[in-house]
Amino acid sequence: MTTTFAPLPPSTSAPLHPGTSAPSVTVVFRPAEKRVEVPPGTLLSDAARQAGVDILMPCGGQGRCGRCAVVVESGTVRRRSTQRLSPEDIAAGYALACQTLVESDVVVFVPPQERIERRIKETKRAAKIELPFPYDRHDQPLRKFAVTLEPPSLADQTDDWSRLQRELARRYGLRDVQASLPVLRKLPRALREGEWTVTAVVELDAWDRPEGPPRLIDVLPGEHLESLWAVAIDIGTTSNVVWLVDLMRGEVMAQAADYNGQIARGEDVISRIIYASKGDGLRELQELVMGTLNRLIAQVAAEQNIRPDEIYKATVAGNTTMIHLFAGIPPESIRLMPFIPVVNHVPTFPAREVGLGIHPEGTVDCLPGIASYVGADITAGVVSSGLCDSDELTLFIDVGTNGEMVLGDCSWLISCACSAGPAFEGAGVVHGMRATAGAIEEVWINPETYEATYKVIGDERPRGICGSGLISLLAEMFVTGVVDKSGNINLDLPTPRVRRGEHGPEYVIAWANETATGRDIVITAVDIDNLMRAKAAIYAGFSVLARSVGLTLQDAQRVLIGGAFGQYINVEKAIQIGMLPDMPYDRFHFLGNTSVRGAYYALVSREMRRRVTEVGRMMTYLELSADNTFFDEFNAALFLPHTDLSQFPSVAAMMGEG
Amino acid sequence: MTTTFAPLPPSTSAPLHPGTSAPSVTVVFRPAEKRVEVPPGTLLSDAARQAGVDILMPCGGQGRCGRCAVVVESGTVRRRSTQRLSPEDIAAGYALACQTLVESDVVVFVPPQERIERRIKETKRAAKIELPFPYDRHDQPLRKFAVTLEPPSLADQTDDWSRLQRELARRYGLRDVQASLPVLRKLPRALREGEWTVTAVVELDAWDRPEGPPRLIDVLPGEHLESLWAVAIDIGTTSNVVWLVDLMRGEVMAQAADYNGQIARGEDVISRIIYASKGDGLRELQELVMGTLNRLIAQVAAEQNIRPDEIYKATVAGNTTMIHLFAGIPPESIRLMPFIPVVNHVPTFPAREVGLGIHPEGTVDCLPGIASYVGADITAGVVSSGLCDSDELTLFIDVGTNGEMVLGDCSWLISCACSAGPAFEGAGVVHGMRATAGAIEEVWINPETYEATYKVIGDERPRGICGSGLISLLAEMFVTGVVDKSGNINLDLPTPRVRRGEHGPEYVIAWANETATGRDIVITAVDIDNLMRAKAAIYAGFSVLARSVGLTLQDAQRVLIGGAFGQYINVEKAIQIGMLPDMPYDRFHFLGNTSVRGAYYALVSREMRRRVTEVGRMMTYLELSADNTFFDEFNAALFLPHTDLSQFPSVAAMMGEG
């Protein structure tokens, strides 16, 4: 995903031609090796423009977004502002191009945009942490065993299958190995083609039968121990991810991701459930997600030059509805009071039963979920984040259509899900859209002019605004006074961007002539109301969780943010609107896709698999619709940032300054 | 199956009109209530003809076949011969119509033909015995359990599946019940339609996993404990049999049988194996047998007014090749040295995996076989005959294309199979055919005229001769001197029936004007040679079995004859040709289809299922092609009845008299 920016308003640009009479210094931009002569005191950002070097400045050169960070490798500069830089950054030479004046000849390194972005996320959003993997990466349930059998004779007429069982028991201690018809059908040819040497692909024990018996998945003529393929799958409502794992190495060898093909039949789980309940909808949705997964599997297989049927196992994480649809289980009861899933832990089944495009006898393990709205993606997250192995009180959150959250440590876990509604997924907002090309994903508002600058996903004009853009927008509107603490738009501001539109008061983010749609992109009072309700629901969830165990949110020593959406959340802005609890940024950690990671762990480690099951058992689920305090907490959170400002000291302080 | 007879030669008929001058007596034939006046001394058979009552006389009134037995209910008769009647028969009033003279007014009961036939088989062939069933008929592995669940609530959010598992454990002690995806897919609707009362169809334990866990096969809304259906299946190479069993009663409620649809692709197992090894042959053969079985299942289901998918389990017996083809497992290795089956005990699988037309999740248990040519039909036979529970030394035989035989008692069992060739199935014989309509199934030769009389299956002219007909024919030819002890046809006999034909010496069984084909039906010297080899192979098998354990055949206290063909064997004639060991007839017992009976037992009794498995384990298999003594025994048996006449004292005695 590449990003592009709206053209800078003329008011923010520095003079392009400082004149030739003044003494000049040389600025060299690496790695492009472009150079330019400029007068001392020129902004690095202006020098870059003259040199034809692109530097990102989504906030329009106000020094607020931190996106124009470059590294001064030699020479003297003066930093007007280091608002977004840590002391370590500065020591490492980082400077904001829009806030830094050249004073001598300098050499400046412009990090690739992607690297800047990651840096921004790491230092200014939540820190990305490397997850520890405390288990044996070669304790996988799926194994390969090469055996050479004594050929049959008139004196030893043992049948093929008993002969193989006997040798697997004798040589590897595998007792009572089971086989299904399809593998028995292959057996006689494999034995004879391999001249009585075969490689048995064996699942030592199923997730739901840890005591065994082992199950023969495939039998190959000859000895083939070089690799053993499996896939870890995350079925998100929006995105599907497949990791191809070589179990011989214990490592991820290829990855692929794409949108869930079900999106065409509904953007959120509720609309999918409704679709599934009509006519042939369930079958159709199952085929759609299988289509996506099988394309991804084919893609990772091609990357490693293997056939998909050389993949012998899949572990699958996803929310409860996605798991139901994947397995073809009717999900209706999930959305109806009292919100009961058909099954939290789907029993292990062979891939052919759902049409998953790996070896048809390969086993599919769906990770266990906890409840209708705390699914396998969350247990996967709790385990893969190490939450359940830590004695630090930790809050784990995964924000999408629903905010799923877990509070606890190694000795207890409590979880809940609050229906945030689809606002953060871009639905329920006039110009809302998913975080895809053309979506505004970050907004800055000039506190004096109320002009907006924005960052768009993909190399194109904006078509709408996605969840992270909305959080950013709401925070900016609040901080700059475009909305008050109740979220009401101040129509008295001296800017044409604030106006009364068709649906009541609204603020214009992008004018028609800037957009791909040829229409103004706005946020309305109704949109704001939906966002307020969404963020309030999430924060209320946190509060109820903490309160239910007699703690406050501030007691949490870490906040782990999982999920695809999580990585785009600007923590600072999310705190400003009162969506995330107000605590030092360094307590927030972005973990990336913890769901597929959990699935991967369950592939390579039986110990991890046991842990996931234990987590499922030990986790208490709080159904918020049955909780009286939730509604009170929700109402209290329907303000920016919150009715109780004491819960948001940093925001209160900023507002006092502003 | 109805039988008809060739027209009686005029020479054997008695005068039709005895004259009116003589005093007369009245003969009343029941149940037709037909009466006739005849002179005293008239044969009952003649009186019957006059009265227009059909009495069967396949041997033409020579008193040799015993088929014309009637019951004299009152009055005085004189029995010229009682050759085929036991003292008990005579005490009960039985008399042979062709050998009995009326002396007073008499009332005669003519049993229905079918009843006569059964009686003949029971008393004059092998005695049919009622098999004991020493086990609990309600110890079946498949059960139904009705449960009423606590409905879910916000306070108890247990998922549907765990809720059902919990109640099955609490109420019935069923721990850790497993379910497949298809039943989980039905679960939410069943629970809600039944308003949280459902009937669970549960397999307590699989054959190959006697320790469990239980497996949920289906879940029905509401309580349905009135019946629980299952089928016992015997897949013969020629005929398929289905018994529909209500496990609630433990009883067989309907039966159906038909030819195996695979016959069109080969009459014996070897030709089927060859067909299966080519192109799509295996799939085709599997579909053919499934077509036959599914038609039979639909038939028995219709008879009981149920849908086939209300049948939740099938047990299947059959020879090893039939089981391989049924399960779609390549059978090639069965016919290639060293004759190794892929699997003797196919693991339990759901019906949908082979397309068997019962409930798709219903389990299919194939009974275990011993070797390529001693299959599940034999273990079924050994168990259902009670052989393995008796301390009497018993010989169990099942004669078809192969002669399969078991010798032993409750403490040891030894088995072998000898390739008798297809002669007894009607192949390898010029006018041979299967035991179907138009087949000559019994032959009598007049020892003076060498004229043949025969009995044909079905109401039609003969088209050929089947296995039992060939045994009968060969015995008659031997006893009457048409062939010598080496099986050579005596061309010097004063009858046109003996002649030199296209293929060498031959005997005419039926003249062209009697047959359906318009051609003479003959047996040639080559045919006789094939028959001699077939019967020699079978007897050699017996001998090797007995010798291998240091016994003689005469030590056997019982000979149990199973299989479809077995019931048509005339024991006396089979002894005369040296195919069965020479011992008193009362040691021979015809058991009918022991294969389907064994399958039925395994349906209703887990104890029986364990016994079958034990029998499979305890039975020693003697591969005759690896046994040096077999060839010697075979050569010694290539005479009528045998080189060593001391083994056939009753035949020797008869020949001494003849």
Walk me through this protein's architecture.
The structure is a homodimer. The first copy, chain A, is an alpha/beta fold and about 650 residues long. Among the domains of chain A are: about 5-125, Roll (Ubiquitin-like (UB roll)), CATH 3.10.20.30; about 140-220, Ubiquitin-like (UB roll); about 230-365, Nucleotidyltransferase, domain 5 (2-Layer Sandwich), CATH 3.30.420. Helices cover about 30% and strands about 25% of the residues of chain A. The first copy, chain A, has 17 helices and 31 strands. In chain A, the strands form 7 sheets. In chain A, strands 9-30-29-20-21-22-31 form a 7-stranded mixed β-sheet, sandwiched between helices. In chain A, strands 16-15-14-17-19-18 form a 6-stranded mixed β-sheet, with helices on both faces. In chain A, strand 15 (about 240-245) and strand 16 (about 250-260) form a beta hairpin. In chain A, helix 12 crosses helix 16 and helix 14 (about 595-605) packs across helix 15. The longest helix of chain A has 24 residues, at about 525-550. The first copy, chain A, is globular. Chain A starts with a strand and ends with a helix. In chain A, about 50% of the residues are buried. At the A-B interface, helix 4, strand 11 and helix 5 of A face helix 4, strand 11 and helix 5 of B.
